[in-house]
Amino acid sequence: MTRAALAVDLGGTELRAAIVEETGAVSAFAATATAAAAGPDAVIDQIVALVGRVATERPQIAPVGLGVGAPGPLDGEAGIAIAPPTLAGWRDVPLAARLEARLGLPVRIENDANAAALGEWRFGAGRGTRSVVFVTVSTGIGGGVIADGRLLRGHRGLAAEVGHMTIAAGRERCACGALGCWEALASGTALGREAARRVEAGEAPAIAARAAGGAPTARHVAEAARAGDPVAAGLLQAEAVWLGIGLVNLLHLYAPERLILGGGVGEALDLMRATIEATIAERAMVAYRDVPVVAAALGRNAGLVGAAGLVL
């Protein structure tokens, strides 16, 4: 019989669920927009419904449990979501216990970026290494660190909240409430905000056309840049500088063998690589400059594969 687990990747924008086999293969998948502003009860209802959908796709599989990658900060050992800034009204929510009661399965939760780091380390771009840093750049910025062959968890599992490094003084306010966080300056949300300013000023018609009257997003910027729009290309290069500055800090802190970039913005790494590498070359100490920045090999499935690994 196929040994597999249910997996959930709980994001501030999208909620994704899957059945993941112990080989790392995703054999069933479903997704929906996260009701992030509706509070924990509504989101937990969504998780239960989505898990039910994927389970019915493979009725011959009896999952051994559910692994959940959720935005931090959270206490994975206690199963508690402490206060994720991308989910409204969440404070000390006993997510694992509530899902166990609803589903009748063992549930493990972990910081979503930690889960993705585990997935990439075991099955993706980190295979063959003992020390990697994974960074996901999407609605926010998260990170996971594998140090000497082990996930770096820290006190209460709160290590590596890399999106909340302060990298600039007196700049944009972050969703966490602080000023100058990496997330506030280099996340997909930040890139979309900069694009919106250009659209409102009438300076970015190509991006506005892709947004079709809605709020421009990082995806619209990347699409316009790939089509040759110079404004979008300039926004991505500014984004790449901010990403490079943060990555330099991670190089100095953790001395990884590889930096792995994932998330929606990470999918545009090919458009930003030269600027990121130039920023690292300019700012990093010499011993760190040869560490490669690579794209997540599992793409958007990294978090799901890693979350399943929590219970497999």
From TrEMBL:
UniProt cross-references to Pfam families, sorted A to Z: ROK
Checking InterPro entries in the record gives: ATPase_NBD, ROK, ROK_cs
Q: Does the keyword Kinase apply?
A: yes
Q: What is its EC number?
A: 2.7.1.2
Which molecular function GO terms apply here?
Answer: glucokinase activity
Gene3D superfamilies with a match to the protein in the record: 3.30.420.40
Q: Which UniProt keywords apply?
A: Kinase, Transferase
For this entry, the protein name equals Glucokinase
